Amino acid sequence: MLIFNKKSDLSAFLSPLIKQNKSIGFVPTMGALHQGHLSLLKNSLSENDVTVMSIFVNPTQFNNAEDLDKYPRTLERDVQIMQDLSNNIIVYAPEVADIYEGNTISESFNYDGLENQMEGKHRPGHFDGVGTIVKRLFEIVQPNKAYFGEKDFQQLQIVKKLVSKYNIPVDVIGCPIHREANGLAMSSRNERLSETAREKAAIIYQILNSAKEIFQTNSAEQTIKFVENEFKKLPEFELEYFEIADEATLLPVSEKEFDKKYRGFIAIFIENIRLIDNISLN
């Protein structure tokens, strides 16, 4: 398996492949791989001549220094997991200096308001950091297709907007959420949960499914109130937000319209670890 730590070396390797019109699939990650990541890799491997996965914990998208410090870093394990899947994966695992060249700050982006909702409200500057790293990685890898999981649905919409506004020639592909056996959305942050908390966190998806049923015959406001009340009964959880939004604009729903797609978004803490999830409500 080829592992590159420097963008210059990766670019030198990919350049002749690009000239040969080989299709390049790209899976950007922050490591601590799980089955959700592997599903993205499998899609890329089946649809492209070449697959690149980046493993880089991007400092500019963290607005909480403690969260950045504690984010799991398991490169050796990640490489072994990828080798077990396929030897045809190219890994780009840079240091911060290789990406930011001594100037670790975000660019500023306007995503036409997508950045002002949900995660944007609760994590100031987060999507500037996301845009900065994704744009730079796209410039380095020059992929034809890039694969993102729908667990970070807002991020997926923002990357699509970034590509559109900057005319970046890459097809951004959203892939379904992968869940643990108990329904908990797979996330690298799950590794930080105790076994007990990991089991209790199954209730998040259960409540989201109940909210989906309630939304069919009730208003967004009534559905949100239901979710808030359910978590009030569970003192081990701290609900940061549950919002119902239009999938396209991410704007909160006031009145339902039959021709629009809606999604419920949640952010919640257990054991001081922040988990996010979402569910289609149509």
UniProtKB/TrEMBL annotation:
What does the record give as the active site? 37 (proton donor)
| Pathway(s) where this gene product acts | Cofactor biosynthesis; (R)-pantothenate biosynthesis; (R)-pantothenate from (R)-pantoate and beta-alanine: step 1/1
Please name the top-level EC class of this enzyme.
ligase
* MF GO annotations: pantoate-beta-alanine ligase activity
Q: Which Pfam families match?
A: Pantoate_ligase (PF02569)
Task: Kindly state which keywords UniProt assigns to this record, in alphabetical order.
Answer: ATP-binding, Cytoplasm, Ligase, Nucleotide-binding, Pantothenate biosynthesis
EC numbers listed for it are 6.3.2.1
Binding residues for ATP: 30-37, 149-152, 186-189
Check the record and name the CDD domains matching this protein: PanC (cd00560)
Can you state which reaction this protein catalyses?
(R)-pantoate + beta-alanine + ATP = (R)-pantothenate + AMP + diphosphate + H(+)
Q: SUPFAM superfamilies per the record?
A: Nucleotidylyl transferase
- Binding residues annotated for (R)-pantoate, in chain numbering: 61, 155
Q: Which parts of the sequence bind beta-alanine? A: 61
This protein's record includes keyword Cell division: no
Location in or out of the cell: Cytoplasm
Q: Which InterPro entries match?
A: Cyt_trans-like, Pantoate_ligase, Pantoate_ligase_C, Rossmann-like_a/b/a_fold
Function in brief: Catalyzes the condensation of pantoate with beta-alanine in an ATP-dependent reaction via a pantoyl-adenylate intermediate.
Fill in the misc note.
The reaction proceeds by a bi uni uni bi ping pong mechanism.
Q: Which HAMAP family match?
A: PanC (MF_00158)
Quaternary context: Homodimer.
Q: What is this protein called?
A: Pantothenate synthetase
